Amino acid sequence: MERWIALDLETTGLSPTRHEIRELAVVPFGIDDDHTEHVLCFTPADFHPSPRPATRSRLVELLRAIGDNAVLVAHNAAFDLAFLAEALRRARVSPFVLRAYCTLRLARALLPGLPRYDLAALREALHLKGGQPHVALADARAVAALFKVLAERAAFADEEAIRALHGPPVRVGARCASASTRR
């Protein structure tokens, strides 16, 4: 059974190299249950103006929480992973490889015809409960809930079933102190 981790981050802009993470949250979850094992949150002070030494150790903790066998899930995964990879690079945390399935991509495939596919619109269309939009922890919980709905709709039993619809996961990684995104 896979370990699933919903990821969300809020940023000061759209460019991972010019802007910063304001908040970051990860929420482990199971497809068949509501159990949350551990929530790890970062705040603006962790990243501004650059990752603090304490933030580096927390980023290492984040990578340990994700582990080699966990599967990340994010809404617009390429965006979130690019920012996370840049934060890891700035904090000189390497090596790392992250992979994630994108709920935006899955929602477009499984819910055709919706007028919008942003997380707030999907929460409303699917009647998902959640906190205030654009708060990392509330959005990470919403990503987990959205993924569960999509998994149920598509009868996903495991990662291989998801890969058949989604394609390969979005990946980022670094061997030394550089990061790149690939599809």
Structure description:
This protein has 183 residues and is α/β, with parallel strands linked by helices. The protein has a single domain, classed as Ribonuclease H-like superfamily/Ribonuclease H (Nucleotidyltransferase, domain 5), CATH 3.30.420. It is built from 7 helices and 7 strands; from the N terminus they run E-E-E-H-H-E-H-E-H-H-H-H-E-E. The protein has helices at residues 44-47, 53-66, 77-90, 103-110, 119-125, 136-154, 159-166; strands at residues 3-11, 21-29, 40-42, 70-74, 96-102, 170-174, 180-182. Strand 6 and strand 7 (180-182) form a beta hairpin.
Give a brief description.
The chain is an alpha/beta fold and 183 residues long. The protein has helices at residues 44-47, 53-66, 77-90, 103-110, 119-125, 136-154, 159-166, and strands at residues 3-11, 21-29, 40-42, 70-74, 96-102, 170-174, 180-182. The protein has a single domain (3-178), classed as Nucleotidyltransferase, domain 5, CATH 3.30.420.
Sequence stretches where pLDDT stays below 50 over 5 or more residues: 176-183
What topology, given as strand order, has the largest sheet?
Answer: 3-2-1-4-5-6-7
CATH topology: Nucleotidyltransferase, domain 5
Rg value: 15 Å
Order of helices and strands: EEEHHEHEHHHHEE
Beta fraction: 15-25%
Number of helices: 7
Major pleated sheet: 7 strands, mixed
Give the terminus-to-terminus CA distance. Answer: 25 Å
CATH class value: Alpha Beta
The residue fraction in helices comes out at 40-55%
Describe how the helices and strands are arranged.
Elements: E1 3-11, E2 21-29, E3 40-42, H1 44-47, H2 53-66, E4 70-74, H3 77-90, E5 96-102, H4 103-110, H5 119-125, H6 136-154, H7 159-166, E6 170-174, E7 180-182
Parallel strand pairs: 1-4, 4-5
Antiparallel strand pairs: 1-2, 2-3, 5-6, 6-7
